[in-house]
Amino acid sequence: MLGITLARPNNPKKIVIRGGLSIMFLLSLISFLLIYFKVANNLPATIFSKPPEIPTYLILTVGQIGVLILTLSLIEFRGKGEKLAHNPFVRNLRLWSMISLSIFLFDVFELLPRAILTLVLGNFIGLDFMSGSIFTGQIGLLWASLLGLFVLSFFQLFVWLWSKIEFKFGAEWIMIRIQTLVTKQKSKKLDFENMMNEVEWVSFID
Fold first, then answer.
1. pTM
2. Would you list the domain boundaries of the chain?
């Protein structure tokens, strides 16, 4: 609904913000009622379960909508979108977004950096990062943070190196190849130079 509103010509900012806040309130109310009437009351244990309980899912959705509204309010509605687009951090996010489907499909590769970390640190601290049992308690939070940082760094290097060959053989590359065969038009969606430096910024907020 927010996307449809944003796509309208001369879309009013108040409708987007008030609509988003209304959705957040409604989802929060449903979550509260489900928990209050004990339809589901295993919070916060279900935050990391797959799939999470309905109240947990709704609460996470509220947070996501909140971040979206905050971003629109602080950036797009204030005319700072193009400036932010050239921020190094945002450019890096744009790089990741070029192969978001491939990253989702290849998330099993997070086992590789976990195995590397176990191999490197296992002999010194005696921990097996392949096991989820070490991520409990306060010290478990430390190991989880260390592993998260290492896995993120691993994927960052992986994405950067892959970008040098324009993400060949990834899910997006396959789909674009099929699209090119059908339309007979070459796509620049995986062109690193084009996506990083030649994208024409379009502001959808007047």
1. 0.64
2. 2-85, 89-197
